[in-house]
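Possible regression after last week's pipeline update?

I re-ran a chain I had predicted before the update to compare outputs. Posting the input and the new output here so someone can diff against the archived version. Not blocking, just want to make sure nothing changed silently.
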Amino acid sequence: MDRYLSGPQLARLLSIDPAARPYYRVLAQTVRSLVLDGRLPVRVRMPAERHLATALGVSRTTVTSAYDLLREQGYLESRQGAGSWTALPDASALGADNPWLAGGDDGLLPLHSAAPSAISTLPGAIASATDAYPRYALGMGYDPVGIAPLRRAIAARYTARGVATRPEQILVTTGAQQAIHLVTTLLLSRGDPMLVESPTYPHVLDLARTRGARIVPVGVPDEGWHDLELLTCAMRQSAARLVYVIPDFQNPTGHLMDDAARAALAAAARRYGTTLLADESWCELAIDEGAGATPLAAFDTDGRVITVGSASKLWWGGLRIGWIRTTAATVRRLAMLRASVDIASPLFEQLVVAGLFEDIERARAERARLLRASRDVLTAELAARMPDWSFLTPRGGGSLWVRLSGTSAVALVDAAACQGVRLAPGQWFGVDGTLEGRLRLPFTQPPRVLVEAVRRIAEARLRGAYGARPAEPLTPSL
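New output (post-update):
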């Protein structure tokens, strides 16, 4: 027989502050917290919306909105005419509060995202691209491998960084996400093992699941990849066809793999017949002097390293341009594959990025200055307000990987949302709900926003998921 909660029973269990705003979101977050910590068991039938609304003294619309949000997140299952039951979401499902689905107009400070604002050189590049754009109208308007000026610019940048590259080795994509998607689609079949770091970039886990690959997670040591024994042993034992790594300011830990480890990793890939997919989306974002390394592809001798890059971190997330560096033969195979997706990347954005490459050192210096200021403010505020939290200060990248003390990330995320801050819990970056005691805190927002965000997070730790949100949310762009 199904267990059932009446409206008054659930209202007593919830104990929500009547002043909490927006009430429907606080109601949904409180129910979710009760389910996650076991106080509200799974498969318990919830009271009808009108009964709970009466017990709480709110409108039925408020309860309906809360139930809708819980269904979107996977914490409620409903059947027409039969009612609603508490549930747990599938570990691989995308919840409504995941970073790529979060709305930008909900008034919450966006500390779930590590996307920086646009660089000052962007308007000039847009103006130049506008002038050049009409000249391309004489052609068909798209090139499956990318326009020649951009491919030349990307190849020249790799060469300047220490790995000789021809334009024929570059495929321009619609963002790094598409680049990773194309490589995994080309190389992985259903059931193939794919080795990933843990924690790692969440979208890669989704891609691997979509391909039906067998995910093999390898924990990233707290001090970073100085000893590759764990990684190389997993490579050998799993017979992984593809290994996805972020060697430069790893997302989310911020670790930088040194040259010795890169050489050892490339050698292991040759030894075990594995392809390395190196995500260099963060490689240009060194903050401290001397914080850099040789590209992983420089240690490749037989085409086993495929590199992915992106314009979004250095210049602006709105530029949906990425690229793949690999052998010319693989570029042709990938170009044929991407024809079934979108044929080519937008011409105008390619022209903009080609122009941005002309002044890349200025952009790198500006981004380093901005990130350094925000990083230093964030670390200082955390040390002052949450001294029991621990983290390593990265020398580049865009985020801190924080070890929490005395609370779960999910509970803190719920509480912080009530205080007007959206956070990214560690579970987003792990496999099957792991990393519950971790939190990624980006420092890509301006210092003023970070000071206010940390103050609100500290308040959330004290008040839990039942407090009211601030009446006037801080505008992140200020």
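Follow-up from reviewer: compared with the archived run. The CA atoms of residues 227 and 261 lie 7 Å apart. Marking as no regression found.
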